[in-house]
Amino acid sequence: MDQLEIILNLLMATGRHILENAGGFLNLVAVIIALLALNTWKREYKFKRDSELLEEALILFYQAEHAIVYLRDGFIFSDELQDFEFPPELEDDYSKEKYKYTHTIRKRFDEKQHIFDKLYAIEFRFRARFGYESIAEFSSMKKSVKELLLAANQYSIKGLSKEEITKTQEIIWKDYHKSSKEGDVFGNSVNNIVKDFDELCRKKLQ
Length: 206
Hints:
Number of helices: 5
Largest sheet: none
Order of helices and strands: HHHHH
Helix content: over 70%
Radius of gyration: 33 Å
Oligomer: single chain
Number of strands: 0
Mean pLDDT: 80
Shape: elongated
Distance between the termini: 72 Å
């Protein structure tokens, strides 16, 4: 074998080695790119799921706030009293008037209950995704709804003192506080719950 053949064989061997290593290197690069793309997709998918859950929960809080305003409207429409009958034990007009409000709030709650049911149901998904410390506003909203319904039921009870009647009126009527220095304490409390949850959701989206 002359010197030229030796050089050609060396060049061919070197070329094959370079090509073989280049193929492996390209394969490695392809794997790295695929892993990076997968991680990016996972992050985007997680963000999409989180943002959808946050938006759904926040909308339900807005709807619950609006429903509570509706429940507390002191004006009773005539169609809300259709097929309505006073309990036979109510004899005086004052007791009957109070019972009308209890009946109306119950009826309005039945109409809007699906909103609160959805809100309470999504709490478990929210807790599973973001942790126990993220559901404080859910508990506060449930407490406010229970307080409102309890006040509505108590309002028509006979034998309440003037102070007890005033306390229930402050909760069940949103317009009761127009002349009050303290303002609508119950309504403001519900508004603050929604504002706090709004801030929580926006922070988690950052």
